[in-house]
Amino acid sequence: MKKRNFKVVVIGDSGVGKSTFISALINESFNMNTHIDQHMPIQLPPEMFNHPECNTTLIDTKCLPNQIPEQVKMADVILLMYSIDDDASCERLQNFWLKELKEKEFQQPIIIVGNKLDLINLEDGREYCRVFKFIKQLVKDFSKVEIGIECSSIKFQGVQDAINCAQRSYLYPLSPLYSLVNKQITEGFKKALTRIFRICDEDGDGVWSDQELEQFQKKVFKRQLNKSDIAGIKDMIEEELKDDSNKKTFITLQGFMVLQKRGIELTKIQISWTILRFFNYKDDLTIDDSIFQEELLIDQEAGQTVELSDFTLEKLKLIFDLNVSTFTQNQFGSIFYPVTYQTSFPLPQQYHPQSQDIDLNQWLALWNAFSFFNYRDTYKLLTYIGIDIKIQDAFTEQNKKDSWGSVQKIIKRRVFHIAIVTKNKKKILEEQLNNISPRITTINSKTYVISIYDEQQAEEQIEKRRLSIVDFLIIEHSCQFSTLQLIPFIILEENISIWTQISKIGEILHSQSFGYSDIQIQQLKSFDSISIIQVASGFALLIGLLSSGYYYFKNQKFKKMK
Q1: SS3 labels along 433-476
Q2: pLDDT tens, 490-508?
Q3: Are residues 505 and 485 in the same domain?
Q4: Is pLDDT of 461 > 90?
Q5: Under a CB-based contact definition with an 8 Å cutoff, are residues 468 and 388 in contact?
Q6: Do 380 and 312 have their domain in common?
Q7: 266: which residues sit within 8 A by CB, 6+ positions away?
Q8: What is the pLDDT of residues 46-72, one digit of tens each?
Q9: In what order do the strands lie in the sheet with 489-491?
Q10: Of 369, 364, 328, 327, which is closest to residue 346 (Cα–Cα)?
């Protein structure tokens, strides 16, 4: 693991021993003998603790009695200290410190440190250790409290353990994964595990075979499992689930989740975080955005578009096939369960004709439409639902539309965008589209996305931003709208259903002329190639330059370099 800079801020009432605690660490670390009222931030030697990958900076604090120190804002972990021998100090933990930290919505892990253990009668020690008596209640009331520990700064007893606990909480935070109150893994962790399970379910059958379990172990932990290892894993799952469903030839998603839960309860939380970080999860259980930064090189201004690749479509079909022939709205939502952000993926209601259940055509059409307008958002969503693929493999770059030769290739495309431009009939048209825009439909296995714009919107938005990816225009006869972009169009027929006209456009787009007028075709053909004269002139110029260069260097006397 790479080095990580880590700040521990020590807070608590005056007199609980914060500065003495830090002095003890300084004296032990640097062989010094010092004690002052408030220390400057100090970086501790990494080799002194259990996690040398942490560059640990310890920050002392001092503040008014009912004030949270400003330094808490920069903390990665908070050490909240109290005096074991002081009842009032103990009560202040809950009545002030933890209450204030909760109300101010600090999200850092909190380690409760009971100091001055040396002042307690050793015979009564375990009974008198207050942090062990009420830690359960503190955990119930304050979710960020992860552990309680006792120490003696004077005798250097448990001081290093407190820092080790802080480092562990920083590297492997508990609260994002597990609720100490409910003794269950969190919803966010379940979402992440669902995605990971899907990625490693290579055959897409919804369960892990022994071979898939072995491949997961080898990929993440670089360790081979033998038969007894696999049997032991299944025994642990069976014990948790209290059934033998995983004793067969597979492991279910539920089995995978209870395995992680058991590991955390056995204080092996680092295993879960190793898995999460391998699959690019950050500490807040969102996927690292850096993997979504790559872009495809496309010329959108020339009408070039991006569509889902055959491989991606096959993966989406596998997801659909788990739900037999159709799936319900609830099943549709469950596919997106691992997604932790608000997505703009099209709603099933946007598909025409609308039905109660979602079939394969509708499922793929929604994805085709989504990728057509924003392949980067599509790639992010594919990643979150469990399709592990490089961006170059996820999409196919389609032809440009700035020449006749390119236009003739649009027959290979799967997705087409039809824009309706209207002046007076927007409301009527919207009613025909059930007041949902854009609408998505399928004609002869191709996906069509239909958008409505009034004339002003067309002039302000389509021409400037989206006209380059419009494949066909339907223009109301009263509109004055025109465009310099070469896009085929028809005039809106008022007495014919818009869906009938869209079906006709499906036929036009795949006819020989693709809906272009003769004038548009001639304009497109003019961009197809450079004339023979231009090519000959360019070639002659190149020969001339090469020849003159040759004679120049042949006759030039080179001076000897010093």
Answers
A1: CCCCCCEEEEECCEEEEEEEEEHHHHHHHHHHHHHHHCCEEEEC
A2: 999 988 999 999 999 988 8
A3: yes
A4: no
A5: no
A6: yes
A7: none
A8: 888 888 889 999 999 988 888 999 999
A9: 351-352, 439-443, 446-454, 415-422, 472-475, 489-491
A10: 369
Please check whether residue 553 lies inside any domain of the structure.
no
CA angle 432, 433, 437 (to 5 degrees): 150
Residue 527 has which token pair?
A: 């961009």
How far from chain centre, in Å, is Cα 432? 37
Mean local confidence (pLDDT), 291-311: 90
- The continuous run of DSSP H or E covering 360 comes out as helix 360-373
Distance of CA 506 to the CA centre of its chain: 37
Residue 286 in tokens: 């969102």
Q: How far apart are CA 8 and CA 431, in angstroms?
A: 61
Residue 544, both tokens: 């001339």
Conformation bin of residue 77: beta by default, left when phi > 0, alpha when psi is -120 to 50: beta
Using DSSP's 3-state secondary structure scheme, residue 281 falls into strand
Q: Which residue has the higher pLDDT, 533 or 529?
A: 529
pLDDT > 90: percent of the chain: 53
User: Radius of gyration (Cα) for the chain, nearest Å?
Assistant: 33
Domain final residue, candidates 257, 286, 315? 286
Residues 18 and 164 in one domain: yes
- Are residue 155 and residue 200 in the same domain, yes or no? no
Torsion-angle region of 220 (φ positive above 0: left; ψ -120 to 50: alpha; else: beta): alpha
Q: Same structural domain for residues 16 and 121?
A: yes
Confidence of residue 323 (pLDDT cuts 50, 70, 90): low
Domain coverage including residue 412: 406-525
Query: Looking at residue 127, what is its pLDDT?
Result: 46
Helix axes 253-265, 187-200, angle to 10 degrees: 130
Closest by Cα among 72, 81, 24, 77 to 54: 77
- Residue 109: asked if its preceding bond is cis (omega within 30°), the reply is no
pLDDT of residue 388: 95
Number of DSSP helices (H) and strands (E) in the chain, helices first: 22, 18
pTM comes to: 0.85
Q: In terms of DSSP H, where are the helices of 104-186?
A: 125-128, 130-141, 159-171
Same domain for 420 and 378: no
In the chain, the amino acid numbered 528 is D
- Output the domain CATH number for residue 33: 3.40.50.300
Torsion over CA: 281, 194, 264, 342 (sign):
positive
More confident residue, 417 or 468: 417
Same domain for 393 and 322: yes
